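Q: Hi! First time doing this. I have a protein sequence and I read that you can turn it into a structure. Is that right? Here it is:
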Amino acid sequence: MSGAAPPDPPPVLLPGLAHVELRDPLFISDLHLNVGAPETLKRFLRFCAEDAVAHAELVILGDLFEYWIGDDTLDDEGDAVSRGVASALRGLVAHGVRVYVMHGNRDLLLGAGFLRATGAQLLADPAVADIGGRELLLAHGDAWCTQDVEYMRFRASVRQEATQRQFLAGSRATRLAFMGAARLQSEAGKRAKAMEIMDVTPSVVDEALRASGLRLLIHGHTHRPALHRFALDGAPAERWVLPDWDFDAQPPRGGAIVVKAGRLTRVRLDS
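A: Yes, that's right. Below is the predicted 3D structure, encoded as structure tokens:
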């Protein structure tokens, strides 16, 4: 007689793809989907149905959700956000679009259950993408915010296996309460810090590019969309920063990066 299936490993132990070949990707990050942002959720669902479906791949570089307390969220029939997003992603996969997702700092507990429910594949952070023979580095970006010492200490803690197991073993109510308190503390901390402290450290980005042997990078996290051109060891390099989404704000904002004629191109999304 076979026993019960073993529990899923904590997300930190899930193997992520370190290298992926892409044909016609659409890159997004930092949507921070949650029940308090209904217009942003609606725009994402429309984005899946009208925009992403026209591409070969959708690549989500972290913080798809404002928070994720565990994959059992998908079992809650009243959770329209997680279930709606999972359904939209599953629909894309059924249509033939490959969906890749990377852990962000807000949804680092996306686990095997989420991957099964959506058909998405997990990307390592960082990962290397090959697009038509041209390689580039993909990352969420928070690992490079090394000037924010307090955050880096917190980041190291929540990515420990023991920490994740302990959190996921708690009741849903306990996890929700903890996440709510953590979000309030995070927002208060941001107001007390200089913006430069919460941005990536250029020298650390340089080291990441050197280690990968690449000179092209896409990341999110900072909510500072831009194209940075610079020289690295005498060679030209580019750092593309994805925008965050907020279609509940005035004016609404959101965007993506696509590849056109072999070149990265920023796309602003309408409301």
